[in-house]
Amino acid sequence: MSGTILVVGASMAGLRVAERIRGLGHSGPMTVIGDEPCMPYNRPPLSKEALRGEEYDERLPFPIRPALNDVQWRLSTAAVSADLDERRVVTSAGDELSYDGMVIATGLRPRRLDLPGPQAGRHVVRSMADAQALRDALRNAPSVAVVGASFIGCEVAAVAVTLGCQVTVVAPEREPMERVLGTELGAQVRRRHHEAGVTFRMQEVPVAFEGDGAVEAVLLSSGERVPAAVVVEAVGSMPNAEWLGGNGLDLSDGVLCDARMRVEGAECVVAAGDVARFPHRWSTGRAVRVEHWNTVGDIARVAGDSLRHLVTDDLGGHPADEGEAATTATVVPSFWSDQYDLRIYGLGDPAAGIGDVRLLSDADVAPVYGYHVDGQLSGVVGLGGLRSVLPHRESLLGSAFSNDLADHHWPGSK
Ligand SMILES: Cc1cc2nc3c(=O)[nH]c(=O)nc-3n(C[C@H](O)[C@H](O)[C@H](O)COP(=O)(O)OP(=O)(O)OC[C@H]3O[C@@H](n4cnc5c(N)ncnc54)[C@H](O)[C@@H]3O)c2cc1C
């Protein structure tokens, strides 16, 4: 395979697709552009180990395989616009980069709270720089308010209370992680945090930040003032897809792809990672984004295979038989979250089945819960890591809830 490959986004998804393309025999020019100043690194520790101490920082960068030695890395460089008909991308440095095949891997950025009050003292956690700034702030913070009680909010709360901060979590749901795990398991998570000293203000939202130049408190909808020298906003993320505007793509929630990760409405372009919206076996006919580490690797393989096919075909070569191409039908969404000694591990789509949760194992030994839709298993969650859920993987794969993704493409899916 030859042709010039441009990867936009120098992080996990971009790296994994680049590795796959080289692994499939591509030896042509490859450029990776990324707006961060550093080589690709691993994000999950940013809300866990790396927040506790700087000694973890050197373990964050991903190793770069020898097959990528001749790749041109253009760091601190953003893609600002693209002309997909002309196959050109304009960068923040003012360059125009041409490609035969392009990978979109620009991920997400944190959503921010649009509330009155001082900015200083407000943090998010997405990048290494974010985590380092928060780590420094936590060292001297008597009180921390975490707004949002899903994965990142709960993980940051666990680290902050362990570091000795007085931590309050504020969120509109009844229980932490309720949208992903349901109320029963969410209550268990809350109890574990409570034992560690975290205070919860659930079914509450912040309405303002207070302080003289820097945050000192969060004002809640109930009128209560929560003291907070540091505020962590963990209220979700937004896809970095604006730079693709004007090309007629569906960018309504990330970049719409088919089940081969080919971008709908573009030639020779694939997407991967958190920014990509695609159909998979558990998505019940819709295209969805999946913001989980394991899935990034799985779909990068599919995207790499597709790009090889597209570019080889486009350059007049002989692509492999379509029937052999990888699709997202084999992807089993999975996630984990570490909070204290809890390693929460999920498979499939537990969130779809939070209305019918049943204990599948002995509650005293690493409990595992099954999530059901119309009596069919949609997902499993265990509190004892991957090992606790693996025995239930076959039942999940055999469940009628997951679609048989025989058709690789749902037109207009959403
Ligand atoms: C703090 C944190 C903790 C997590 N913990 C877990 C966990 O415990 N378990 C789990 O399953 N998953 C976890 N995840 C999710 C997992 O890390 C992500 O799914 C994964 O990092 C996504 O990789 P990505 O390459 O798609 O996106 P990103 O890692 O966001 O990379 C996108 C890159 O593109 C860059 N970029 C954006 N716009 C442009 C542009 N216009 N031009 C050039 N470059 C651009 C960005 O700066 C970034 O470097 C966590 C994520 C975070 C942030």
TrEMBL record:
Q: Which cofactor does it need?
A: FAD
Please tell me whether the keyword Metal-binding is annotated for this protein: no
Record carries keyword Oxidoreductase: yes
Family matches, as InterPro entries: FAD-oxidoreductase/Apoptosis, FAD/NAD-bd_sf, FAD/NAD-binding_dom, FAD/NAD-linked_Rdtase_dimer_sf
User: Domain FAD/NAD(P)-binding spans what residues?
Assistant: 5-284
Its keywords, alphabetically, are: FAD, Flavoprotein, Oxidoreductase
Pfam family, any one: Pyr_redox_2
By its UniProt entry, which PANTHER family does this protein fall under?
APOPTOSIS-INDUCING FACTOR 1 (PTHR43557), RIESKE DOMAIN-CONTAINING PROTEIN-RELATED (PTHR43557:SF2)
Question: Under what name is this protein listed?
Answer: FAD/NAD(P)-binding oxidoreductase
Q: Which lineage do the record's taxonomy fields give for this organism?
A: Bacteria, Bacillati, Actinomycetota, Actinomycetes, Propionibacteriales
